[in-house]
Amino acid sequence: MAMNVLQSPSRPGLGKVSGFFWRNPGLGLFLLLLGPLMWFGIVYFGSLLTLLWQGFYTFDDFTMSVTPELTLANIRALFNPANYDIILRTLTMAVAVTIASAILAFPMAWYMARYTSGKMKAFFYIAVMLPMWASYIVKAYAWTLLLAKDGVAQWFLQHLGLEPLLTAFLTLPAVGEIRCQLPGWALSGVSLYLVAVHDPARSGGA
């Protein structure tokens, strides 16, 4: 018995468009990213430019009001010697967070990529991502209960004679930032290692 094969109607217009982007992959990538980049540019950079422009407005210290009278007083205030210490502490904290996150995350990423699979790898993923799922308010309240004066951590370390260590530890503002940065560092490190090193080496028999 002869069987008739139904063929879908050809779409010459769609084929030409597909062929055009096939021959010009750079243009296709540009058009694909154009929308998100425009949105990012309008929302993010637009907000920054608006904030920069408002930095030239006049601020009345007495009435705490802002008037659209252009002045350079706010720009001159940036070079106040008191701001140098703020900038230095901010840069120091940023460098400390970056280094500490790398030290903690990359060994974890290496172990996850090299020695775990299946349920164990899923466990590590959940353990890394779980702190980010909770609400910031809940996390802040929980850390307050744990690390506040006369809190759980102080009670525990007081019995061990390590209370000064907790006091010194809590003076570092980078602690909270490391907790926020660690999941991104660890998971991106896993992906980077798998794609660039581990998977090709395993395919080659290493």
TrEMBL record:
Q: Which InterPro entries match?
A: MetI-like_sf
Q: Does the keyword Kinase apply?
A: no
Keywords tagged on the record: Cell membrane, Membrane, Transmembrane, Transmembrane helix, Transport
Superkingdom assignment: Bacteria
| Subcellular localization, as worded in the UniProt entry | Cell membrane
GO CC: one term?
Answer: plasma membrane
**Predominant place of localization:** membrane
What's the protein's topology in the membrane?
Answer: Multi-pass membrane protein
Q: Where are the transmembrane segments?
A: 29-53, 86-110, 122-143
Q: Which SUPFAM superfamilies match?
A: MetI-like
Q: Which family does it belong to?
A: Belongs to the binding-protein-dependent transport system permease family. CysTW subfamily.
What name does UniProt use for this protein?
Answer: ABC transporter permease
